[in-house]
């Protein structure tokens, strides 16, 4: 992140030579950074890639909600690749990516961070419409509309973040017998405060404020308005409604956890920026800076784990994806002719599984259709 060069200034006395083999950070900071960043980024990159593959390669997983989750996964991948992995080389060595790397990496960092917030906001609004306005949701909550909204969000954020191409530059931390190259501010830090506060408002305060209000309304519908009692003759329909309601609750809980973790894991960094806006010199404790960074990387890595733990549909899709990758090589060597009966049986099983396990991501009951078909 952009704050690293200021922290480096406070890590060394003025008589240290940076052209010698003296480490940029204390050895314990380097070790902790390398181990934790590699672990978090490795898990996060693998998990977010699986989210994208699962949705794109499974037809019944292509829903409006999952489209926003794919957008969030791609944004998290950008954060992990553009912020997480370069952090390792920045801790153990000088800035090695040059002027173009400084511009592009900084741009991608803020692009991924801001798109994550935009995707969560769009996801929250989609959930509110799907659950609290189910009739309008049939027209508003569609895959094609979700794709258009996502494209607009990416275009807006990509244009908004272009300003960072003009705000950063290669900087040098001067010492008595050398200098350390780093990617930093082009001008005084105070001139960047309005930009940071704008980011803080657009991509943290507004998304969380909106999520608090909308999830409160969603909770009132799902958890405080139980289904009314129905006659025995409508027992099957009641079961279908209860199943759909249970599915909507499960998805809403999962997405609410995503929003809560977003709020908690981004709070240290956002708080640091606000506090340092009024402090001179700014608070740049090296261990607290590392903690803030790790929280950001963890926020980008933890979402696939949440999907796997809280969504049966994603858990089954993850397992199926892993099994398909394992069986693909085995099938080409073991079978030389098509087995028509087995293929038809598998297709029938997949079709029934699609109906029975489909979660009602748009607020429309699916279990009732299954019950009617079975009768």
UniProtKB/TrEMBL annotation:
GO BP terms, alphabetized: phospholipase C-activating G protein-coupled receptor signaling pathway
Entry's Gene Ontology cellular component terms: membrane
Q: Which CDD domains match?
A: 7tmA_TRH-R
Positions in coiled-coil regions: none
What subcellular compartments does it reside in? Answer: Membrane
Cite the Pfam families for this sequence: 7tm_1
Q: Name one GO molecular function term.
A: thyrotropin-releasing hormone receptor activity
Q: Which residues form the G-protein coupled receptors family 1 profile domain?
A: 47-307
Residues annotated as transmembrane = 31-56, 68-85, 97-125, 146-167, 195-218, 251-267, 287-310
Q: What is its main location?
A: membrane
Keyword set, alphabetical order:
G-protein coupled receptor, Membrane, Receptor, Transducer, Transmembrane, Transmembrane helix
Protein family membership: Belongs to the G-protein coupled receptor 1 family.
Q: Could you tell me what this protein does?
A: Receptor for thyrotropin-releasing hormone (TRH). Upon ligand binding, this G-protein-coupled receptor triggers activation of the phosphatidylinositol (IP3)-calcium-protein kinase C (PKC) pathway.
Output this protein's name: Thyrotropin-releasing hormone receptor
Organism the protein comes from: Sphenodon punctatus
**Organism classification:** Eukaryota, Metazoa, Chordata, Craniata, Vertebrata
């Amino acid at each position: 992140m952009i704050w690293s060069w200021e922290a480096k200034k406070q890590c060394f006395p003025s008589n240290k030579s940076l052209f010698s083999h003296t480490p940029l950070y204390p050895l314990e900071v380097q070790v902790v950074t390398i181990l934790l960043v590699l672990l978090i980024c490795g898990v996060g990159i693998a998990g977010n890639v699986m989210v994208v593959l699962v949705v794109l390669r499974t037809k019944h997983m292509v829903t409006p909600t999952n489209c926003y989750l794919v957008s969030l996964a791609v944004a998290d991948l950008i954060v992990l690749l553009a912020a997480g992995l370069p952090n390792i080389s920045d801790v153990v060595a000088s800035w090695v990516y040059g002027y173009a790397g400084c511009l592009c990496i900084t741009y991608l960092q803020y692009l991924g961070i801001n798109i994550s917030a935009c995707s969560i906001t769009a996801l929250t609004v989609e959930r509110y419409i799907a659950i609290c306005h189910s009739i309008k949701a049939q027209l508003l909550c569609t895959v094609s509309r979700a794709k258009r909204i996502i494209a607009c969000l990416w275009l807006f954020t990509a244009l908004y973040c272009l300003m960072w191409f003009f705000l950063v530059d290669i900087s040098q931390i001067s010492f008595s017998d050398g200098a350390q190259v780093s990617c930093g501010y082009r001008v005084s830090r105070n001139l960047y405060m309005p930009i940071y506060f704008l980011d803080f408002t657009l991509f943290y305060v507004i998304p969380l404020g909106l999520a608090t209000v909308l999830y409160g309304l969603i909770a009132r519908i799902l958890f405080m308005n139980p289904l009314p009692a129905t006659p025995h003759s409508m027992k099957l329909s009641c079961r279908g409604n209860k199943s759909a309601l249970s599915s909507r609750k499960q998805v809403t809980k999962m997405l609410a956890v995503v929003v809560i973790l977003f709020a908690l894991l981004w709070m240290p960094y956002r708080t640091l920026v606000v506090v340092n806006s009024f402090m001179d010199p700014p608070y740049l404790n090296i261990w607290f800076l590392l903690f803030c960074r790790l929280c950001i990387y963890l926020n980008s890595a933890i979402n696939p784990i949440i999907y796997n733990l809280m969504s049966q549909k994603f858990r089954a899709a993850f397992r199926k994806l892993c099994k398909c990758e394992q069986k693909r090589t085995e099938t080409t060597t073991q079978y030389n002719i098509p087995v028509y009966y087995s293929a038809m049986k598998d297709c029938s099983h997949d079709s029934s599984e699609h109906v029975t396990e489909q979660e009602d991501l748009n607020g429309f009951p699916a279990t009732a259709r299954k019950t009617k078909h079975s009768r």
